[in-house]
Amino acid sequence: MMQVISTKSGATTKECPPTGKLIILTGPSGVGKGTLMRSLLQRHPQLHYSVSVTTRSPRPGETNGKDYYFVSRREFEELVAAGELLEWAEFAGNYYGTPREAVMNQIRSGKRVVLEIELKGARQIHTCYPSALSIFILPPSMSELEKRIRGRAQDSDEAIARRLRCAQEEINAADEFDIQIVNDDFESALNSIEAAILS
Fold it and tell me: Its GO CC terms (predicted)?
């Protein structure tokens, strides 16, 4: 696998002035972080959502440039080589990454920027930007998580098993994050995220 690109130099107050804020939202696949994010943005349009780049295929209803920027593996690797991603990781056979300049411009302008990213990417951001607020979304249980993933009817049994193995590893890392929120009751989880981000 390619080497991770990160920006430890020059990634402090010069790029992240105190007027803006970087917020990381992560959790295992199927935990509901995407649905929580959409509801959060509907309630608080002043928040800036950073659209990630991915090599995976669009799911039904997803729009290029709104949900993700969908690119080929070659295009993604060119972005990595050019240093144009703030963070990136490979997950379930696909690459995911965050465009650097779009995020930094929003933070410089004083916006609260929310990244919905995978664990590996969240760790990269935390290393480069320790002042970022990090939130981990937990499922009520592994059995409930499996039920949610199966309910999407988008993955084979093999892919589901792989996602669940990955999920357990990610859940084991939840203590690395500033705040852990269990998505048992949707409204309660959303209110907890609001309180953390807007306080």
Answer: cytosol
Q: Is 113 annotated as a binding residue?
A: no
pLDDT tens across 154-198, in order? Answer: 778 888 888 888 899 999 999 999 999 999 999 999 999 999 998
110 annotated to a ligand binding site: no
Interval 55-105: pLDDT, tens = 999 989 999 998 899 999 999 999 999 999 999 988 878 999 999 998 999
Is 27 flagged in the annotation as binding?
Answer: yes
Instruction: Give the sheet arrangement for strand 94-99, strand by strand.
Output: 68-70, 52-54, 94-99, 85-91
14 found inside a domain: no
The answer to whether 28 is annotated as binding is yes
Is 31 annotated in some ligand binding site? yes
C-beta of residue 93 within 8 angstroms of C-beta of residue 159: no
- Establish if 16 belongs to a structural domain: no
Specify the number of domains making up the chain: 1
Q: Is 9 flagged in the annotation as binding?
A: no
CATH code, domain carrying 39: 3.40.50.300
pTM of the model: 0.78
Contacts of 173 (CB under 8 A, 6+ apart): 119, 136
Query: Is 32 marked as binding a ligand?
Result: yes
Residue-range definition of the domain harbouring residue 80 = 21-198
Supply the pLDDT for residue 19.
65
Tell me, yes or no, whether 9 lies in a domain: no
